[in-house]
Amino acid sequence: MQQRIKRHELKPGMFVVSHGQGTFASPVVQVERPLLTQAQIDECVPKDVDDVLIDTSLQIALPGQARPVGVLITTGLGEELPIAKRLYSDALVHVKSFVDDVRRGTDIDYRKATPLVESFIDSVFRNEAAAVTLFKLRGFDEYTYTHSINVSILAVLLGKHLGLDKPTLLKLGLAGMYHDVGKAKIPESILNKPGKLTGGEFQAMKAHPLEGYKIMQKQVDLDPEILRAVVEHHERHDGSGYPRGLMSEDIGRFSRIISVVDVYDALTSRRVYKDAMAPAKALGMMYQWRDKDFPPNAIENFIRCVGVFPVGSFVRLSGGEYGVVTSTSAKRPTRPEVKVILDADMRQQQPRVLDLEALKGTPQAQDIDEVLNPADYKIDLERFFNA
């Protein structure tokens, strides 16, 4: 519900639609984003503004705040996706800031990420698909920074599916945000090297969990599970990981969760030395590593979480048409809902949604033949989510 309030009534977490009266002296300025801190309020809404238009249905409950009356528990994908994108952009600014601080030798405060992670949690609870879709639509090409955000969001998503409560999800999301903080101590020439690392370079890269441990150990009131995730996220179930070669239950709970989503994001992200792998292919590879790299049922749980064909996947159907996956279900992981957007000749058509499970056994039945990279076809999937 949209309503006007006085500028001084604005509080962190409120979704500001616009301010201004639509006159020459007071033109309408579109904001259309949640303002998570007082600093963001001061930046986006000048102090001489009299009143603002807010949307209470999109308000985000920050730590220590009660959820406002009238806030929607769930939202549609088309409605939630713009919110998730703005949160992602805010998180990108934060990650760049703390990485730069570490490189300069300046102390960081992990607690500054708390409002961001809380917002991610709220977004995931409103619409899980938006979080998964975001990884397909993101236009960022800065893996050093985006990987930390992706791991944080995916960890929250998986943690929710595992039944963790919100206070625990907050700690898990913070662990994901800072799991690779030690890489800020690794030379960028190694991090972004397009070719294969030398033996010495690989050893330097493997030092990042311990470097991260040294950085995070200085934090005030840091939960031990977060610290363990920073140092243990490259440990493996069979003891083949690093830095300590831990096995099985000796690896922390957060560490086990983050190890799964860390590998998934690495495989499905484009790097200077490789193309992005299709999510379905990445999940297939990770399934082969179950009980070796990952604990029993870890990959099965993750697949149930994101789906065999995650939301946002660009696919070709057995009938020749092309579409984007818009909904998945653990009960029908190979037969999601697909919004068909192109005909067999890749000409745009009136979008229509096919429920592949509902069509099973009918003359109209179709399967997913192949998962494709939309960038290869110059397809902008984002505009089809609201179509």
What would your notes on this structure say?
The protein is an alpha+beta fold and 387 residues long. The protein has 3 domains: 2-58; 77-306, Hypothetical protein af1432; 314-384, no CATH class. It is built from 13 helices and 9 strands. The chain has a 5-stranded antiparallel beta sheet with strand order 8-7-6-5-9, with no helix packed on it. A 4-stranded antiparallel beta sheet has the order 1-4-2-3. Strand 7 (337-342) and strand 8 (348-355) form a beta hairpin. The longest helix is centred in the first third of the chain and has 28 residues, at 77-104. The protein starts with a strand and ends in a 15-residue tail after the last strand.
Please summarize what this structure is.
The protein is built from 13 helices and nine strands.
Shape: globular
Oligomer: single chain
Number of contiguous helices: 13
Query: How many DSSP E strands?
Result: 9
Are there runs of 5+ residues with pLDDT below 50, and where? 66-73
How do the SSEs run, as a string of H and E?
A: EEEHEHHHHHHHHHHHHEEEEE
The CATH superfamily of the largest domain bears the name: Hypothetical protein af1432
How is the largest sheet built, in terms of strand order? 8-7-6-5-9
The CATH class of the largest domain, by name, is Mainly Alpha
